[in-house]
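Example for tutorial group B:
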């Protein structure tokens, strides 16, 4: 999986166990899918999962890991990944737009790896593949690029000096595809969260909305371009897509976050809700509980966590000199579980 700010990797076992203990749950919606780690966990647990994210790269991850099934695509994916890995590396005179923008004007990847990304991405585009199989290959390429990037994990900037991993050759691997869930085939969607809440239905809905002002499209703009393959106008040192400026979300606004999430909670078509949020987010625990009480009984589970990698590194000026220290290195993650009746939450209190 790609490096991802806010990833719920360490919370997946807890989330999966919470859902397992809810009565008669066979299906789930993940409205803010991100890397689809939670969707994968629920699919592996046997649930039919419907994953959604409004960013194209995240919807592609969901199509690979939630919608595509191992028994359907593994053999073809193995063959195609071997074929793509065998493609020749272009000469410097053949380097194209992606390499110029993200390897020369910016320094997210070594140019030789940028050229490999271009060659492989063009080959994928030219094959006319089934959308599920294409998603598997695009995720393979995204993850391969992530293993040789030169960032701290987000694409707001790149490292002043090349990361050691950036010197490794780019090599594709087949993603860890899951077999179809016992409860039925999953699906992936690229909708606004409110649209998805009103259109998708399941026994339980998992919500992991953005916490603060940082837009995921800005943090992972290179992946968005890699998947869209649209050569957008770019700006700034990090060569962000120009639409990063225009793609606003109320969830990234302190003034509008409560109203935005309230609307989703009111619309979501599920008996049970599981909501993940941080004590560093725009919405307080009290505000979240008040919103969720409109849907039923609320149980709150707390977990202590290390903060994101940027907090561990500290505060630096544009020249790379450390100029300050962060206020704290730990935060609390809340898991809010909502059920129609208190009896539905029996067995969760000890988690």
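The residue assignment follows.
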């Amino acid at each position: 999986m790609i490096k991802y700010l806010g990833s719920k990797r360490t919370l997946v076992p807890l989330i999966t166990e919470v859902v397992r203990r809810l009565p008669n749950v066979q299906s789930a919606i993940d409205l803010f899918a991100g890397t689809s780690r939670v969707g994968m966990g629920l699919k592996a647990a046997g649930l039919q999962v419907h994953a959604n994210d409004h960013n194209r790269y995240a919807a592609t991850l969901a199509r690979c890991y939630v919608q595509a099934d191992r028994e359907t695509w593994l053999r073809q994916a193995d063959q195609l990944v071997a074929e793509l890995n065998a493609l020749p590396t272009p000469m410097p005179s053949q380097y194209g737009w992606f390499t110029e923008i993200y390897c020369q004007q910016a320094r997210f990847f070594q140019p030789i790896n940028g050229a490999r990304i271009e060659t492989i991405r063009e080959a994928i585009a030219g094959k006319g593949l089934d959308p599920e199989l294409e998603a598997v290959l695009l995720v393979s390429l995204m993850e391969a690029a992530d293993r040789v990037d030169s960032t701290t994990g987000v694409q707001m900037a790149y490292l002043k000096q090349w990361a050691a991993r950036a010197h490794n050759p780019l090599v594709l691997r087949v993603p860890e595809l899951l077999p179809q869930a016992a409860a039925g085939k999953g699906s992936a969607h690229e909708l606004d969260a409110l649209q998805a809440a009103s259109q998708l239905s399941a026994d339980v809905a998992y919500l992991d909305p953005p916490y603060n002002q940082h837009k995921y499209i800005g943090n992972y703009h290179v992946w968005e371009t890699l998947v869209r393959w649209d050569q957008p106008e770019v700006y700034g040192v990090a060569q962000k897509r120009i639409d990063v400026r225009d793609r606003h979300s109320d969830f990234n606004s302190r003034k509008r976050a409560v109203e935005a999430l309230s609307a989703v909670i009111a619309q979501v078509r599920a008996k049970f809700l599981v909501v993940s949020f941080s004590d560093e987010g725009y919405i307080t625990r009290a505000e979240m509980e008040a919103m969720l009480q409109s849907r039923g009984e609320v149980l709150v589970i707390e977990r202590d966590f290390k903060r994101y990698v940027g907090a561990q590194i500290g505060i630096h000026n544009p020249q790379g000199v450390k100029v300050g220290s962060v206020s704290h290195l730990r935060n609390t993650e809340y898991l809010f579980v909502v059920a129609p009746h208190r009896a539905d939450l029996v067995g969760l209190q000890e988690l």
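The chain has one domain: 9-345. Compare this with the pattern of hydrophobic and polar residues in the output above.
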